[in-house]
Structures are given as C-alpha cells and as structure tokens.
Amino acid sequence: MLLHHILSLSLSPLALLPFTLSAPLDSQSPLSSSTDVQPTSRVPSRYESTILGRRLLALSSTGVISSIFPSSNQSQATPWTPPPTSVSSLSISLPDYLADCDSPSVGNPTLLFLDPSTSSRNSRVLPDQDPGHPNNISLSLSWWDAYPLLTGHRPWAPADLPRLSMIGYLEEMSIREAEETGVVACYLRRHPDARLWLPGDEHAAHGGRWVRLVVREVYWMGGFGDRHWIGWFDREEWNAVREAEWGAVRLPGERD
C-alpha cells in the first residue's frame, strides 16, 4: 500500500522548501542499504517537526497523563481511598481522554477531569502550596495506535513513529466559559460518551471540571534519529502553528 512518506510544506513567512524524509516511514521498511540518505533528503527541521507535532495533537483523542502523588503529609481529605504512603512524591501515568478544543488553538489541549481521577486529585493545588507555582503535569501522545488503523498492518518498527510529551500546568475553565467558547461542543464531537459525565450535570456519576493543559515545554521524538528530528520544541513556535500549516502535512500512514 502506497502511503505518504513525502511531507511538503509551503510555509509563510519561513518559505520552507518541500522536504523528503530520508527513509520510507509509510512502509516502515527495515533499515538497509536501500534506505541510505539520498543526496536530496534531509532530516526535518525543528519547525517542520513542530508542525507535525501540532498535527499529532490535533488528531489525538487519548493520551497518557503523568502526575505526582502529594507527599504523605499533604494528603487531601476525599471520600475516596487515599494512596498508600509508599507512593508519596512518586509519579503515576494513566491514559485519559483529550481534545484540541481551544479556538484559535495554540496547542493547549482540553481535558475533562473527574473528581475521583488520580490525575485530577494529584494536579490540584494544595493548601500549603504556592498557587503561583502549580503542579507540573505531562501529557504524552504517540502515533503508535493510529498507524495500524490507517494502514491495516502493524508497523515494522513503532520506534520509528512520532511521539511527544507536553509538560505544563492545568488552568481550570468555568462551565460557562467552556460552553460559550465552544469547548464543550468540540469535546463531545471527539468523545460523545462524555455527555454522561459533563461538569455541572446533576445526573452525572461524579463531579468534574474542565481544564486546559497550558503547555510550557514539548519534547519530540519523530522516530529514528538519522531521519527524524529529536529534541525540545520552541514554545513560541509551538503556539504559533496554525491549522492551515498542520492541515497541510501528513503523519506516516495518512492519506490525502
């Protein structure tokens, strides 16, 4: 199956030239002499990779949230079983829903945190914590699950598929703000089942809150380092990418 391994970018004001990845990502071919870098091939630049990262965010509906348990002397009084003291100050990673719903989007994903959620409880600012320095939280995305769904076969090497981790803090939105800015409608288009546990719904099983992850740093692994960019993105570049840019590129396995 022929899938795109050429990503053509026509970007303004940078006026980037079209570039070709140095190995056939779409076919996930094993490394061999046939995949040597060609004279016209090059590793994508940081900004080109940033555009791919923003596309990965825009197309993602789930990710892995990493948060840190409070220290044992900071446990919050909740109706749910508290974590064991042995995990105090340790991190935990759990999958969750997400959607890129800010308009215009600057790369800060929307989350719906239910009160019993470990990630939600760990992310709250505690009474003796400076509210100006909220807990850091990270959200990791990968293209590993999407690739086989798009192509009908498993990748030869998932390690050669893109993934990223966004690190930042949570900013709570009121229900009114989330409704008036279109966040609720956007989120439900991606997760229609979430209608059963919307914040403010008296029939919901649990209370919840709308939050956005304000992204401060992004670490990107485009794949194997000889053909992809790997490293930290520039935050201003991450925020500046527009839909016209990420809409013009394709991740491995995508069709036009």
UniProtKB/TrEMBL annotation:
Keywords on record: Signal
Leader sequence residues: 1-22
Transmembrane portions of the chain: none
Record bears the keyword Signal: yes
Domain CREG-like beta-barrel: 46-238
UniProt-listed PANTHER family: ADL397C-AP (PTHR37273:SF1), CHROMOSOME 8, WHOLE GENOME SHOTGUN SEQUENCE (PTHR37273)
Record protein name field: CREG-like beta-barrel domain-containing protein
Record organism: Endocarpon pusillum
